[in-house]
Amino acid sequence: MRNKMFSTVFCFIALAGFVFAPSVLAAPPAKILVGEPATISGKHAKAGEQSVNGVVAIVDWVNNTYGGVKIGGKKVPLEYIKYDCESKKESVTSLLERLITVDKVHFTLAPYTSGLTLAGAPVAEKYGMIYLDHGGASNKIFQQGFKYIVQTIGPASNYHRGTLNMIKKTDPNAKTVALVYEDDEFARDVMAGAEAHAKKLGLEVVFQRTYPKGVTDLTPLLSAMKAAKPDFVIGGGHFQDGQLFNRQLADLDINPKALSLIASATLPAFYEALTTNAEGVMGPSHWEYGVKFSADGAKKAGMAWIGPSQDEFVALFKKAVGSDILPDYHAAEAGASILALVMAIEKVDSLDADTVRKALGDLTFMSFYGGWDIDETGLQVGHDMVDVQWQNGERVIVWPEDAKTGNFVYPMPTFAEKAKGVKAVPKK
Amino acid sequence: MVFEQLMGNLIQGLILGGIYGMATMGLSLIFGTLKVVNVGHGQFIMVGAFVTLWMFNSLGASPVLAIPLSFLIGMLLGFLCYYTFVKRLLKGPELASLLATFSVGIILEETVRLIFGSEFRGYDWALGKIKIPFTVLPYTKLIAFSGSILIAVLLFLWFKKTRAGTALRSVVEDSEGARVCGVNVDWQYALSFSLGLGLTVASGVLLTMFIPVGINPNMGGQYTLKAFVIAVLGGLASPYGAFFGGLIFGLIENGSYTLFALLPHVEPFALTRFFSFVILLVILLIRPTGLIATK
Question: Within its chain, how far is the Cα of B246 from the centroid?
Fold first, then answer.
């Protein structure tokens, strides 16, 4: 009787051990593999290259400074596996399948752009694979019921919220705004968020239009916008159309008091291409070199801190690129998504996708990139954007008040003044 | 107000259309002579844009000087392409030359990316602007438009008035007949291909005078599509037809925007593209050889 009872208990323990062994007792792997169908070539290569190097920089920090990811009592290095999706949706899906089924990665990163991120999400979902979104800001991604996608970039609907607040605060008499955006998932979400917030602030949207991707001439649209006489203009989509937008406003001599363009205006190439025509032009950004987030700041805010300091990140980024290029927000947000993953793995001491996903949902932290927190859908809600304005050839953070490195120049100089060499310089 | 906008847009459209037309002449010339569809057409335009950018930003040279240099580079690329693969593929299936030119386009894109990177670049050739009734025109756009017309006229005169041009026309009309009459058809093919690419690369310079920003290795694709529409509109094998096709395309694209903007709850830009293709389809149905028939 006693032997029978002992055997039963032994069998139960053995069975329980067999069932729970993979998650509790499995030895950690030699490497934690993170894969990405990265945007290395094609029309979005510019931002894609930044994000790839942002990931490389942070993987370098995790492996060589932090000592690896602590799991199962061991420090395990990260390995970043990437393939070029050529900015094509069909490549994203096939490469993601390859990363998951052939390379057997533990976690995946989404490629840059909302459209490409959305294209890969069903594949990650099919395999129950964590899919870290660092470059897909469209709110629509998080309205599909996907379980495994986690955003680090802020949602598109927030892009122009700060810009509108800043202009309204600076010029309470500003009444009319024109919203002109590219016709894609991301920009349409930005426009919807901007429209709602403008109305909330009591502004009248006097002109609202989209333009198609790959547009080569905005003259008809801008001429119609001129007739609506908006006080200020916000819009844009990606890099090429942003430069075109600014240039053709100058060509047609259309002079809004303020101009804010998403994606393009914050990049050095924007000013290099437009020179003085870019003076006073603004853009919202998720991160800018100069924004001061630190371990001390995190402590004061009651948040956990992880990752390199801003300067350390910049040095690692330059090492990754192999040249003296500053990282932009695409690099910072891609790197921060890896930091979130590291924190979540360490928190639950597991590589199981569901367990790590739950940990990501509970996670709140700060890094060089700023705050990080997601809601139940995976949408980023803990990261605030900054507004950057070109002043005398330099990018100056002008909003929010507690992060700004200079005052907002409003109204911006007219294009005729800019042609005569007038720069956007704050009044003393 | 609507009338003013319409007129302003038509003026802008005419200017852009002239440049589009010039940018399509090379495509039509190559197809007309060799029956080769250059799918990498837009990438050759991109080369011209980068030549201008490099000359202006690195050497401080006027974009006008980039026109002859780009033409020369295009001619050299043309001879190189012709004698390395086009000549061998002329008697092969059409798909072979289609894929070959597509490959060349990709090679050009990646080579330029390797040299210049994937940044979106631009240059600021500030010459001022002139206010005319209905709109404002930068002088750079006027120079680009004038350049397009001048090049189109020079090409016309070369074809009609020179011995070399006559030889080329004879090959276009009947290559076997021309061969019997002593015309070196192979040389005429090579000349035609390189002349076509010369015109295409030079048109990249003119395009940047109209839009001096957003210059990047991937910019060619959007112009390839437009060039095909324009070429079919004007007559795929007719360089002059292509020029007039460009003018019409520019007028349709810009002019129809104002009219579509009057309709409620529509995005006029999307309808403009739709309308351009409807016009294309109608012209193909009525006049399948394009507006200016070649034969």
Answer: 9
